Amino acid sequence: MVKLLKMLVLLSCGGVMPNIFESLMSSPKIFKNRDALRHSYTPETLPHRSEQIEELATILVPALKGETPSNIFIYGKTGTGKTATVKFVGRQLEEMSRKLSVHCYVHYLNCERIDTQYRVLATLAKALGRNVPMTGWPTDQVYDEVRRAIDSRDQTIVIVLDEIDKLVRKGDDVLYNLSRINGELENARVSIIGISNDLKFKNFLDPRVLSSLSEEELIFPPYNAEQLQDILAQRAELAFYEGVLEEDVIPYCAALAAQEHGDARKALDLLRVSGEIAEKEGANKITREHVKKAVRKIETDYVVEAVRMLPTQSKVLVYGMIILTESGLRKFTTGEVYAIYKNLCKKVGIDCLTQRRVSDLISELDMLGIINSIIISKGRYGRTREIKLDVPIEPVKNALLEDYRLSPLAGIEKSMKGIPPLEAFET
Question: Averaged over 386-396, what is the pLDDT?
Answer without folding.
Answer: 86
